[in-house]
Amino acid sequence: MWCPLSQLGPRTQLPPHPNGHLERSKYLPVPDAADKVGMALNSGLPPGVGPYYENHGYQPESLYPPQPARAPSAFSVYPAHYYPPAVPHYTVRVLTNASTPAVRTQPKSSSGTPCTSKTKKALCITFSLVTVLAGAVVASVLLWKFTESKCTVSGMECGSSGTCVSAFQWCDGILHCPSGEDENQCVRLYGPNFILQVYSPQRKSWHPVCRDDWSESYGKAACQDMGYRNSFYSSQGIADDSGATSFMKLNLSASHSDLYQKLYHSDVCSSKTVVSLRCIECGVNRKMGRQSRIVGGASAAPGDWPWQVSLHVQNVHVCGGSIITPEWVVTAAHCVEEPLSHPRYWTAFAGTLRQSSMFYGDGYRVEKVISHPDYDSKTKNNDVALMKLQTPLPFNDRVKPVCLPNPGMMLEPKQPCWISGWGATSEKGKTSDLLNAAMVPLIEPVLCNSRYVYNSLITPSMFCAGYLQGNVDSCQGDSGGPLVTLKNSVWWLIGETSWGSGCAKANRPGVYGNVTVFTDWIHRQMRANS
Ligand code: ARG
């Protein structure tokens, strides 16, 4: 992390770094693809001229567009309803009857048309009939092909499998889809108060759960559904400030044991409170309550960033990561690209500030590495990965999880955020021995995508943070590490370090994976691999 305010002085006075290259490059055959993006971006540019980048990796229309399941809410400064409703894992397909070639009746014969003599007329009629018939056959084949893998208006498709289930079977507690998509994501936490919401397939929208008749055991069940195996922290009723007019309510007399089958729609919630659910105690650090702020960039003190981990390959720090549960760490997909995709290469160190104090035996071995299936190494779209540790981390003052961001966080356009890591303290410099942290404000996507900055390279799965004048930034070796913000007295993992063109340069701020967009993917992986 480059923080010249505290460490290096103005950029122009930097001595050339003796090492010239990253430590990681000595050990790792993988070129840093993020840097390739940066090179492409800058190549052939006269100084001071806006970047030009031919982004061949961009696919404007892929089969499954990389739309986030919900609004990219690192910048949800707009009310939630501003964005298209989040619908889990299916798209409602509408029969495109309009694409059926229209079968036209032959125009009446008239003088001047070829159908004049009797034989000609007969030939004409036969020809027309054959044409019409052939047209009809082609049309029906096309129509059949086209609708074959799609569900009717009322049905919902299981992922892209072509299997349809009715809306009433979605989120009813019974598996209907071959891969369980129908029961996959029926519950979520919304906003900075962790409001529990349940998806209503009939109304195709999310609704808060009324506190009436709620008990902790339901909270535990909902946490399990979000992939928290045995973890549950609190479940309480709070005043509903979302202005919801429709709630999900428990029907205690229902014979089902399944939580979702017990829930029904109701416009009244007599307690006037909704369920706020926390599955893990997360987002607390040493600074809580002390109101202290980190300025510019400085080395961290024990317990400042207790979720930060250092990910080593062959005893060398390669990337950062963030603890979200005792056994799951969030990092960047580009960190675990081939040939480093196998868990055996990786060791995670938690609770230690100095690289020189991390000894092999104290590390945590990795059991699984899961990279986002839509990660694109060229564009860095969906640059997120998960690591499951072989043994759970014991939490203490220096080792604690950060909170995954919920949709509907409503961050400010320039929300102050903190980045931390052992990355280089100058462009092309080497890994830092001490953990550093710096404050960087969010940068609005439109601004970051402008011609003078990243010229449309920022997708909804990314956002920028830092300063357009440069000087404070993350750098090589910080990748995968956290970008957090404090809201409602809780620290949230809003981003993970992904790429940038150089480090701390003017108009080239750091680019971060938009974790809010990945929250449900993360929950699904935790659930499927618990
Ligand atoms: N890709 C880098 C890494 O692997 C992180 C680069 C961040 N760059 C920046 N200018 N913020 O560590």
TrEMBL record:
Gene Ontology MF annotations: serine-type endopeptidase activity
First-tier enzyme category under EC: hydrolase
SUPFAM superfamilies per the UniProt record, alphabetical: LDL receptor-like module (SSF57424), SRCR-like (SSF56487), Trypsin-like serine proteases (SSF50494)
Presence of the UniProt keyword Lyase in the record: no
Membrane topology according to the record: Single-pass type II membrane protein
Cysteines paired by S-S bonds: C171-C186
Catalytic reaction(s) noted: The enzyme cleaves angiotensin-converting enzyme 2 (EC 3.4.17.23) and cleaves influenzea A and B virus and coronavirus spike glycoproteins at arginine residues
UniProt subcellular location: Cell membrane; Secreted
Transmembrane segment boundaries: 122-144
Domain of life: Eukaryota
Keywords: Autocatalytic cleavage, Cell membrane, Disulfide bond, Glycoprotein, Hydrolase, Membrane, Protease, Secreted, Serine protease, Signal-anchor, Transmembrane, Transmembrane helix, Zymogen
Record domain Peptidase S1: where: 294-527
Protein's GO biological process: proteolysis
Designated name of the protein: Transmembrane protease serine 2
